Amino acid sequence: MPLAVPYIDISDLTGIRGGRVLFRGLSFRVETGRALSLEGANGSGKTSLLRMLAGFLAPAEGAIRFGDVADGEERGKFVGWLGHHDAVKAQMSVRENLDFFAQLYASEAGDTLDALGLARLAELPGQYLSAGQKKRVALARLKLTKRPLWLMDEPLASLDAAGKKIAADLVAAHCAGGGIAVVATHEPLGIDCDRLVLA
Amino acid sequence: MSALLLRDIRLAARAGGSAMLALAFFASVATLVPLGVGPDLALLARIAGGVLWIAAVLAALLALDRLFQADFEDGSLDMIALSPLSLESVAAAKIAAHWLTTGLPLALLSPLLAVLFGVKTIAALFVSLLVGTPAVSAIGAVGAGLTMSIRRGGLILPLIVLPLLAPAVIFGAGAAVGSAGALPLLGAFSFAACVLSPFATAAAVRLNLGS
Questions:
Q1: Is the pLDDT of residue B15 over 80?
Q2: Which of A19, B133, B174, B208 is the least crowded, having the fewest Cβ atoms under 10 Å away?
């Protein structure tokens, strides 16, 4: 891993969306090697919190620091993002989709296709993939970014049982390798992790 | 940066892409005008520069609304924004890809259409489109960045972009008929637009990512 995040520290964070207060005075800390399961009802602000961590959204109040890095755009350079949308181009094959992001992130696709059980689909255009298969492509892409901090929005949604196991193992292996993962989820991840419930 | 440029060119060239669409639109408008105006070749030759320039600008606009919107809607733009590439470089790559898939083909097609209009200054028309269309892509990108999160933003985009493109059309249509001094002004306008637009576009994209 080229860069490392020693810890995430969030202090006194207030999130407001559309004039509605999502959370106020939120403080927590995630140490390196740990996964945080971010839970809460629909609309409780999980996605907004992830977008704040990634630096897309500015918090109304409070501070986010990755080690000693506080600036939003600087923080983004540590982030591996698995968003709510799959970001798989319908007109490009699975391999082209992954190769593009591998180049963009100055990384290489390597054996990530095999690891996610996608080897057979490599030449298939994105438009023929099922929701679960797209999620697997998104997980493969997250892995090849080689970023130390993974921010994941519902990574288990639409995956089958085998896919959920693969996703959970990926997160566990990432954390064991000195990474951090913050995972917004409605389902138990099935790995050793801290929990934060947004009210 | 080249990875993004190549990907956008590839997407524009494939099914559902906008490259052929712009060309076909340009050719259709240029063919319709003589039908509407009538077979007065002297008149057609006189208005050809302006007509072809306006047709080229509208054709280029056709492909602009999806410049950022497609990547914004499917989540790709989040991933691109978090990559080591700065948003200014992302904007520059997208502008270049747009010009290479619309502006350049439009300029290349223009001599053929100029013959239909009986234009004498075919070379001047071609050069004016070649020099001026980068400004259309560059200024259009600012509008595309601003409207990417709006549903049917493609309808608002021309309202933002067309007034800003008036200088390009004025100098471009002038240069197309070989007016003295129009081409240097067009070149200066195009150059300034290409240099400044990536910064304005990046700011617009940043605004929308945080919305």
A1: no
A2: A19
